[in-house]
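Quality-control log, excerpt.
Job 1 of 2 completed; input and output follow.
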Amino acid sequence: MPVELIYWDSDAFLGWLQSEAGKAQLCEGTLMRADAGEVLIVTSTLTIAEVLWMRNAPPIPKDKAEIVRRFFRRSCMRLRNVTRVVSESAQELVWDHGIRPKDAIHVATALEAKVQALETFDDGLLKKTGVVGIPPLLIRKPIAPAQRKLL
């Protein structure tokens, strides 16, 4: 069975790292699948810095630096650089679809990586599912862990 590629934008990482109510549990589903070898989580190198302080959220303090750095070094993570091609694709997403520039970097990176889905909690991005990319990119919230069956 092939490994599924799932893109996480900064919002998904922050939901997990800050243990945000309603978000961390959903993120746990993707992380459990990643730890089981079913999923690789793809993100932009932009996320490493952006996740430290998202708009309308408290910053992650420096005393948690090693925790954050170790998290991005997990074997189930794949980081993609912000290249000129990605940046120019992001420009097109801003102009053609009204996506904010940082979000456009994430979407362009997800499209370049040919992921099966982009997971986010950003309402603006969630509205763009099936609208951007060829084939159209699935944009969704992370999926909660599957319930275990009773034996």
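Job 2 of 2 completed; input and output follow.
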Amino acid sequence: MTAQQPHDEVPATVATDAGMLVLWDPQRFEAVVDDDAWEDELLEDEDIVRHIRAGALVPVNIGGDGAFAVRVRRGSAAAAAGLTEREAAHQLVASQPYLFVSRGRALVSGIEDVSGDPSDGVIEHPVPEGRHAVVVHLIDWQAEAGSQDAAGRPVPGALPDFVVLINPARPGQGTFRTAVNTFEAPNG
């Protein structure tokens, strides 16, 4: 996938049957070549947390299966990526920043598609090498008037389910979220 400017961004549809989407560094998972290797690396929450702490994987996790529209937006030190006015008006919740240590690119897929040989359902984004802070936003796209057709499906131009913002980590930024669940549980 080629880099896109914010005005050209189109959310990609990403699916999971394992209950979690992820943004991940493909070089960190080159050894995942079969089901046994995948289970060794990603089956248990402790395994996933190990990769989150290392900056190799960011969960986009609401605990549900399905196909979701995901928009990834990358910023720079000079111009941070943020939500558009429409996205901000329909944001439900944002995660705390996760660490992502890029080696030049990030992939987005269902967690079951993380492997040394990514499948067709994986979306690639160029991300400059280095430490980045990733914030995941859950968007209530259905709340926007005119966002659905008569069958309840999103119309062209509808907001995505998730907006993932990737910005360079600030110097000295050392505290990052490491939870498998992307968002805090609501109080109550």
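Post-run check on job 2. The helical segments are 35-42, 45-53, 85-89.
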